[in-house]
Amino acid sequence: METGTKPAAGIAPWSEVTTILVDVAAGRRPADLVIRGGRWVNVQSREILDGQDLAISAGRFAWCGPDASHCIGPDTQVIDADGRFMTPGLCDGHMHVESGMLTVSRFVEAVIPHGTTSMFVDPHEVANVLGLRGVRLMHDEALQQPVNVFVQMPSCAPSAAGLETTGHEIGPDEVAEAMTWPNIIGLGEMMNFPGIIGGHAGLHAEVAETQRAGKTVGGHYASPDLGRAFHAYAAAGPADDHEGTREADAIARARQGMRAMLRLGSAWYDVKAQITAVTEKGLDPRNFILCTDDCHSGTLVEDGHMDRVLRHAIDCGCDPLVALQMATINTATHFGLEREIGSIAPGRRADVILTRDLETFPVDMVIARGQVLVDRTVAGGGGTQDGRLGTVPDVRFEWPGDTRATVNTGRAMTAVDFAVRVPSGTGSARVRAIGVVENQAPTRALEATLPASPDGVLEADTGLDIALVAVVERHRGSGRVQTGFVSGFGYTSACAMASTVAHDSHHIIVVGTCRQAMAMAVNRLAETGGGFVLVKDGSEMARVPLPVAGLMSDEPAPVVAGQVRTLIEAMADCGCALNNACMQHSLLALVVIPELRLSDLGLVDVGRFEFTDAVIS
Amino acid sequence: METGTKPAAGIAPWSEVTTILVDVAAGRRPADLVIRGGRWVNVQSREILDGQDLAISAGRFAWCGPDASHCIGPDTQVIDADGRFMTPGLCDGHMHVESGMLTVSRFVEAVIPHGTTSMFVDPHEVANVLGLRGVRLMHDEALQQPVNVFVQMPSCAPSAAGLETTGHEIGPDEVAEAMTWPNIIGLGEMMNFPGIIGGHAGLHAEVAETQRAGKTVGGHYASPDLGRAFHAYAAAGPADDHEGTREADAIARARQGMRAMLRLGSAWYDVKAQITAVTEKGLDPRNFILCTDDCHSGTLVEDGHMDRVLRHAIDCGCDPLVALQMATINTATHFGLEREIGSIAPGRRADVILTRDLETFPVDMVIARGQVLVDRTVAGGGGTQDGRLGTVPDVRFEWPGDTRATVNTGRAMTAVDFAVRVPSGTGSARVRAIGVVENQAPTRALEATLPASPDGVLEADTGLDIALVAVVERHRGSGRVQTGFVSGFGYTSACAMASTVAHDSHHIIVVGTCRQAMAMAVNRLAETGGGFVLVKDGSEMARVPLPVAGLMSDEPAPVVAGQVRTLIEAMADCGCALNNACMQHSLLALVVIPELRLSDLGLVDVGRFEFTDAVIS
User: Helices (DSSP H) in B287-393: which residue ranges?
Assistant: First the structure.
């Protein structure tokens, strides 16, 4: 696939520079950059070749082989690989930038030092808030990056039609339009697998528009059922899936000609159980791809990105060369980009990592499109120093003003808005509560009995670990508030935590033990454009400002990671010791995952895909 | 890649039938065809799975897995695989239909019984005779086939500009136009590798047009030099190459990210030496593809097609599953068709072979797009019977009248036209002769001394095995005749052999010991629209009529094979015992392969790419 016709920053299409590359290889023209004396990790042939040189011009490889002396001129930059491994830059096969709470530019800046030079991003969250226009902005920001950011057109906004509203909706017309954009690589994960299996016309039309454009349909089959439902889903066209969690899931996907994307995100640990399909069952590894899906800023800052996934796959027993293929050429081939990225070979974008060790994978140097972006090489040797040299460009993409003012609750909230009521004098009531389960995405549908105030208001009960939860509609200013109960956060203080990160429709979720605090937290989000706010005893204890669509910050990753850390510490201070507390909070409205969720339209029994009441009797 | 938007006969795009396939898989709609109880040879996962069923509707797989009972309705055709292997139909990654001297329809008809269900054809010969219009006709005929015939746009007509003329020429404009046609899969082998390496603008523009269209650039690097020239060629964009003959060639191509096509044609034996790159050196097999390049009708009739190549690869020590991948999914992936052909998986075209043995690969049944085209199943068991059942459709593509009248010599030839002259009274002359080397494509530049007649005419000398050779211009009726000498055919009779198959520009080549016979043979070709004619002692002893472009017959393969056999017997009767005599004859004008060739413009010293004289002194 010719992707070079896309106006990506700083890289001309291969088709426009063939004579330059040929001239360099033939020794008629000096290269821009030559890397000498490295060990070429060849993911095409699955070999390591010692004593090799790479010559680069026009951002692409012109020569990959022994002795590129003939490509060196007086102005050629020469890098001594000093026997280090030269690997292709790493590819993340499926991911959401929004999970880092960072704009594309800030996310890219954070992952380049980890060797990620290609990402396949699905701006599903932005699509829910800003619709097609938001996707286009992500697409345009992606094109300005110094590395390769390809965009998947989100397929499911809303995720669960009828059970929630969104800021904007995505349908076949939007998909068809997006497929004409230069940097759209395919359709984002088709999450509505029941709809696909049921033959929903609009969803099938989205798939068809993508297939007609010759692009890749992303899958998302989040069910353990590998029988008829799974087969039917595969027959509809999704070309990959990252929702597998068991070895059998990975095997089933490979057999059906879908690529199994093995996911290690901040909270996803799906590589270890599935990679045995290759390491133990001996399946052809070509259909296995590594990805992150969702990474928090803290993970990027502290643990890494695709380098972390690669190391983990190797720790799980995968041959380092095979693991590297899963993070490079397999991904490129999947998206029809094998002649553009994913290997060190002539004509491809010159994305190279220098590393001293293929198993621990310390990233000494990152070169993207022939530009040295990171250089930790210690003078005189191939070591790694702590400091980061090289020049990661400081890309400043301007999100328009209105995309930074997306939190519209219609009015200021007061404590009364969060009151759950029963008839006066009821005494007590049996209620449903969303039961958060530590380290799991599904919730449980719990029940509890709560006392009512004389005028019929049901309050949180910290003794029972029952908090109030509300979803405040924030896209259209309707003033609509849905209320219910949640258990599992363990809040003991008079507090409230509110966020505009509220998968997937991203209204405001607020959880609290105190209705005044809830109102204050929600109003604070409305004033500041969104993010996370924690209020305790009438004061704001922590805030993560996410002004872009209420989802993303344009501060650097370490800043956002620090803000999130402060927030989590403040939540703990309020009594919440839950692992991944922030994420659990943000998933309370995710009406596609069982059992009980609260949307902007009401409390949803996800097993039956219908509304239910918070108060049973 | 969505190829289904192409108006191929009898197959709707996957995008148009997703709901049908999903309904079948889910058990809501009966399949058209179900194959039960087979061993699924899964080239995606590289596994064999016992006891599996396939359900097919709309020409595509809807269900691949255990127990498709739920897909069977009262009108569903059910086939008992009886424990046989179910493999994908075989793909020929690069080939010239013209080498079989058959039209596309007759070629397809001949190879379907051998399990070939996808071919990537480069109508290079037709392009030389009929130009872009000829390519379009091949393209249109390809679309009418019951199997998948994808067309590569020829890149090099003439093969050697300045050294020969053609009926029509191909340049960047023609390539750009062809890339808009629905069934063009890429650019045909870029044979002019010196031109590419030298930076020839027109050739690079052809590559660029193909890359811009997102299609595959075919390579053809016919040189043992794996140094700068090879690297420069790779940098220009060719994505594959089938000209390798040594293990080192295959390895070099894989390392450069070009796919190594391993060729077993009627006269090419390039698999054995190269497949050790996988079987012994352990390279990742994904970049290796099997192909035939050129198969004569006789080979198709007597030995097979891709089944022959597959068996041979296995005989060479390749794991049968890996060899099968090289003839199915690897090919499909290379051309961006992995979601359309090349594996048994949901949504793909339902091309299936049933066989009892993966190593000897007897083809019991061939199903293409869900239609049973061949069935040799013995009643009551999975055996093979000699007779062929099933229904290969009898496709009748009408080549327009003028494409069947392409032999225009301008005038009738006489013996005088073939006289090589020296000044009267010279006595004898030192001449250059093209030295044919048995079983090799390159010729040698020989010299010999011939007596001259009193009026200065040099005749053939059967004692020295020196025959006359002439190339008669036949595209534009110029009446131009070039003459010279050839050694190696061993003709002892007063005979002449003439053909319009005369690579690559396909004028008339005539070789003879008798100038009258030469004139008669050439005139006979002009009268009959082309082919091969052998004249001995004033009589036509054999003829292979190839009326379509002077290259192809619309008779069935066994008929043409029989005609060719008769011709070769007649050549032997004239004293020619050379192996592949017909092909050696047809290659005498191939001015891109050393050392000495005769074109319609003169005798060519191919080493120096310049003209020379038949008479030295």
Answer: 297-302, 306-315, 320-326, 329-334
Pull the structure tokens for residue B305. 């097609």
CB-CB under 8 Å, B251 with A211: no
Q: Residue A361 class from Cβ within 10 Å (0-12 exposed, 13-18 middle, 19+ buried)? A: buried
Are the beta carbons of A44 and B284 separated by less than 8 Å?
A: yes
Tokens describing residue B327: 């003839």
Do the Cβ atoms of A207 and B63 come within 8 Å?
no
Which of A14, A229, A235 is closest, CB to CB, to B21? A235
* Cα gap B131→B169, rounded to integer Å: 6
Residue A53 bridge partners (DSSP): A65
Would you state the pLDDT for residue B3?
A: 40
- Residue segments in chain B with a per-residue pLDDT below the cut of 50: 1-7, 382, 386-387
SS3 per-residue string spanning B226-256: CCHHHHHHHHCCCCEECCCCCHHHHHHHHHC
Average pLDDT over residues A514-535: 98
Tell me which of A43, A204, A211, A288 to substitute to probe the interface with B (most B C-beta atoms closer than 10 Å): A211
* Angle of the A124-143 helix axis to the A104-111 helix axis, nearest 10: 70
The pLDDT tens digits for B298-333 are: 999 999 999 999 999 999 999 999 999 999 999 999
Cβ count near B182 (within 10 Å): 13
CB contact under 8 A, B287 and A45: yes
* Structural contact between residues B222 and B241, judged by C-beta atoms closer than 8 angstroms: no
Q: What is the pLDDT of residues A474-486, one digit of tens each?
A: 999 999 999 999 9
Q: Rounded to an integer, what distance in angstroms lies between the CA atom of residue A153 and that of residue A389?
A: 35
Query: DSSP states of A134-148 as a string?
Result: HHHHHHHHHHTSSSE
Q: What is the pLDDT of residue A8?
A: 61
CA distances from B487 to A163, B180, B445, B460 (A): 85, 46, 10, 10
Is 60 exceeded by the pLDDT of residue A167? yes
Q: What is the pLDDT of residues B30-39, one digit of tens each?
A: 999 999 999 9
Q: What is the pLDDT of residue B6?
A: 45
Taking the CA of residue B460 as centre, how many other CA atoms within 13 Å lie in the half-sphere pointing to its CB? 31
Least CB–CB distance from A257: residue in B251, B255, B346: B346
Cα-Cα-Cα-Cα dihedral sign, residues B508, B511, B514, B517: negative
Size of interface A-B (CB pairs under 8 A): 209
ipTM of the assembly? 0.94
> Does B225 touch chain A if contact means CB atoms closer than 8 Å?
no
